[in-house]
Specification:
By secondary structure, the chain is mostly beta strands. The chain has a domain at 1-139: Pectate Lyase C-like (3 Solenoid). The chain has helices spanning 6-14, 241-245; strands spanning 2-3, 19-20, 22-23, 38-40, 43-45, 58-60, 63-65, 78-80, 85-86, 91-92, 104-106, 124-126, 142-144, 147-149, 154-156, 174-176. It has an eight-stranded parallel β-sheet. It has a two-stranded parallel sheet with strand order 1-3. The radius of gyration is 21 Å and the shape is elongated. The relative contact order is 0.07.
């Protein structure tokens, strides 16, 4: 893997060429020329991409270790097959305050990543590993003209075990076939959210609002419905009733003639 200088990187960006198999750890990201970055199989170690302008950038098979994206503009950026987790240090990357509107993460390792105050409107996480990720205080919705738009954040077949969403506004979010085992979902607002076919085993929903949420086909063992703040209109499958109503002291029996 070659080390790319500042000047070489700027020339590649201006020429619209991709950067491949390069170590970009020492690059100064504060004043790059206009033009979307296309990085393939590059390495970023201990780099600061804080406040970097990377709208529309594409990252394929890149490795990010202890990288700070704080305040970076990553709107419509795409990350495919990237790793944001330093296994030796047990540390994820920092996306605090980053603008990730329209961004896509696919087949990425986001374990222990931090998204505090990050803008995640219309962001997609597909087939990612994000165990222990911290989404507390992340902004899932968008305000325009004084009105709050729906969240439209999509987690598809993503591992979110032990992730924290405490007090997050997750209304209308999609969690399709994702795993949220032992996730911290306390005091979330998840009205009309889609949790179909998710693994919600032992997730903490204490104080959560699940009005009109769709939990059909989800594993709900361990969820204490008595601790929910509201669940009017919640959708469940018939085979889930035993686990759902057990905390209420209700026993469900098969129909007899």
């Amino acid at each position: 893997m070659v080390v790319i200088s500042q000047g070489q990187l700027e020339e590649l960006i201006l020429a619209g060429k991709s950067v491949e198999d390069a170590d970009l750890s020492a690059i100064d990201w504060t004043d790059l020329p206009n033009g979307a970055l296309n990085a393939r199989h590059c390495r970023f170690e201990g780099a600061s991409l804080a406040d970097a302008e990377l709208a529309g950038a594409k990252f394929d098979g890149c490795t990010f270790e202890r990288v700070r994206f704080a305040g970076a503009n990553l709107t419509d950026a795409s990350f495919s097959g990237c790793s944001f987790f330093d296994a030796e240090a047990g540390e994820g990357c920092d996306f605090s305050r980053a603008d990730l509107e329209g961004a896509t993460f696919e087949n990425c390792n986001l374990a222990m990543a931090r998204f505090g105050l990050a803008g995640l409107f219309d962001t997609t996480f597909k087939s990612c590993k994000a165990a222990g990720a911290d989404f507390e205080d992340a902004r899932f919705a968008k305000t325009a003209g004084g009105r709050v738009a729906v969240s439209r954040v999509r987690f598809i077949a993503t591992l979110l075990d032990m992730a924290s969403f405490r007090q997050a506004k997750l209304d209308d979010c999609l969690f399709a076939e994702s795993s949220l085992r032992q996730a911290d979902l306390r005091q979330i607002s998840a009205s009309s959210a889609d949790f179909r076919d998710c693994d919600l085993s032992e997730a903490n929903f204490n104080g959560a609002i699940l009005d009109d949420a769709d939990l059909r086909g989800a594993m709900v063992m361990g969820i204490d419905i008595t601790g929910l703040a509201s669940f009017e209109g919640i959708k469940v499958s018939a085979e889930q009733l035993t686990d759902i109503v057990r905390p209420l002291g209700i026993r469900v029996f098969p129909r007899t003639r």
